[in-house]
Design a protein that fits this description.
Layout: H1 2-22, H2 24-48, H3 55-75, H4 79-82, H5 84-103, H6 109-135, H7 140-168, E1 172-174, E2 178-182, H8 183-203, H9 214-219, H10 221-241, H11 257-261, H12 267-281
Antiparallel strand pairs: 1-2
């Protein structure tokens, strides 16, 4: 537990420095690095299942998905820049199709294409919505606060569930996929997430866009908490299929990058959609 707490403090320090000391570009690169490491570990888990993805090539394409739209929109106001996001997946498919004809046996080509694209869509394409949140309000500083709110409500659900589960956990939520997770822990995690969602938007009200009031910060924290639990269970299922406890080992007490970002994969696009609807209605 002490290693987990220390790692959490260090990671949050890095996040605060990148987000609020250096600025949006550093935040985007931090997210890109986390996405790339997560995708690489995801491909490693697939390899343990006997699959054959393009690990390095897939991660390279994933970094393009994270970085290209951000810098295209930053450097140009033309409609072409705004359309980068919609066309990038198609170009990724083209690149993967071209690659398999040179690199794989005939009987592995479709499988390689499928699992490589799975990693691209499940990790960087989903996490890219955190980058898009930065641009959502039109003011990067306030967009960064939206990302912080989403990360806090998602990640502290896991922390709250861990503490609540240790104290009150009696009924397993998913005995086969993740035996240690309990319904009591999940409820406790959701309560903590909602409380932090309110506290963050209430005490830092002026740092958020006008449309994101403390009321909405509280209400929307609940679906973020629920989805973070589902996202964590999906990762647990993948690790169990790969017969691996953690996705990696370079973060003491936590595991790998996938163990760090798992709860953000489903919450990032959903949070972007909900906050985008709020922005449109304001």
């Amino acid at each position: 537990m002490s290693k987990r707490i220390l790692s959490t403090l260090i990671l949050w320090t890095i996040t605060v420095v990148c987000f609020f000391v250096i600025g949006p570009d550093a935040a985007v690169w931090l997210l890109a690095c986390l996405s790339g490491a997560t995708q690489y570990e995801f491909y490693g888990l697939l390899e343990r299942m006997g699959r054959h993805p393009f690990k390095k090539f897939g991660v390279f394409l994933g970094l393009i998905i994270i970085l290209a739209p951000y810098y295209a929109n930053k450097l140009s106001d033309s409609p072409i820049a705004g359309g980068i996001q919609s066309g990038i997946i198609a170009v990724t498919i083209v690149a993967c199709c071209a690659r398999i004809f040179r690199e794989r046996q005939v009987d592995q080509r479709v499988e390689t294409l499928s699992v490589t694209l799975l990693g691209i869509i499940y990790v960087p394409f989903m996490l890219n919505y955190l980058v898009r949140l930065i641009e959502l309000p039109g003011e990067p500083e306030k967009g960064l606060m939206l990302v912080v709110w989403l990360v806090v409500t998602a990640k502290f659900t896991d922390v709250g569930a861990l503490l609540s589960g240790k104290a009150f956990g009696r009924h397993p939520m998913s005995p086969v996929t993740s035996p240690k997770k309990t319904w009591e822990g999940a409820i406790g995690g959701c309560i903590i997430s909602v409380g932090l969602g309110f506290a963050l938007t209430h005490f830092a009200r002026d740092a958020f866009p006008a449309f994101f009031t403390p009321l909405w910060g509280t209400i929307l924290a609940l679906p973020m908490a629920i989805l973070s639990i589902v996202s964590d269970l999906v990762e647990s299922m993948i690790k169990r299929m790969a017969a691996q406890k953690d996705s990696g080992s370079f973060i003491p007490g936590i595991g790998g990058a996938f163990d760090l970002t798992d709860s953000l994969i489903l919450t990032a696009p959903t949070g972007y959609l909900l906050l985008g609807l709020l922005a449109l209605g304001s």
